[in-house]
From TrEMBL:
It comes from the Bacteria. Keywords: DNA-binding, Transcription, Transcription regulation. This is Helix-turn-helix transcriptional regulator. It comes from Amycolatopsis acididurans. The lineage of its organism: Bacteria, Bacillati, Actinomycetota, Actinomycetes, Pseudonocardiales. Pfam families: HTH_18 (PF12833).
Amino acid sequence: MITRYIGYTQHDLPPSVHRGLPSRHVTLIVSLADPIRITGMPKPGEAPATMAAPVGGMHLSPALIAQDAFQSGVHVELDPLGVPALLGVSPAELSGYVVDLADLGVPRLARLPERLAAATSWAGRFAILDDVFAAAAGHNEPAPEVARAWRRLVDAAGRLRVGTLAEEVGWSRRHLTERFRRQLGLSPKQAARVLRFERAGGLLRQGGADLAELAVACGYYDQAHLGNEWRALAGCSPGTWIAEELPFLQDQPAAPAPDSAA
């Protein structure tokens, strides 16, 4: 249940704030440079924090991260269905929060930043991640109906009505909503919002997108609906995000999920 690993190193970045956007993943970032300074948490009222290895649950607003001139680390994207086995907590416990990996209370995970820092290549670091996640004990997925509903939403990029989803899994809409939220931390409707938003972000990264056409392709009523959702989930308009982020995006070494964890 690991989507991918991304290794990154960036030099001479201008001082700014990076928006950690909502996505379908639970994310782990292990810094190989200075600790990561999170200046704004996705959950209102949570204090800023500095962490060597932050774990971010699924959320509905951005995490604001201070961008240092030099950055290096490993970014891991986890499917929420695999989080109980891989991290020892439920995705619902992490939803809306950013916590330090060491605070999860799993020794093999607490030692991970030190092991990654000692490695001398990206291939070596990815092999360490394979080793750590392969040692995860057992599988404790949510209820099969919840897992099926989540996978259907992901496959449809959020363009699926909750009523239709409930009919497919054989539950009432209310029961599906309650069980889905209890086990994944978001309701099906909220998860669909995140998935549509994530698809829109992916298309924006490709460049040259007409916002009106993009809005329709991603399941929004119109461009105004797209803009409202971006301001709610990203804290800014699509145009502002493009101006802030796209000039600094670059390809980084990446590794697919290990076969044993897929």
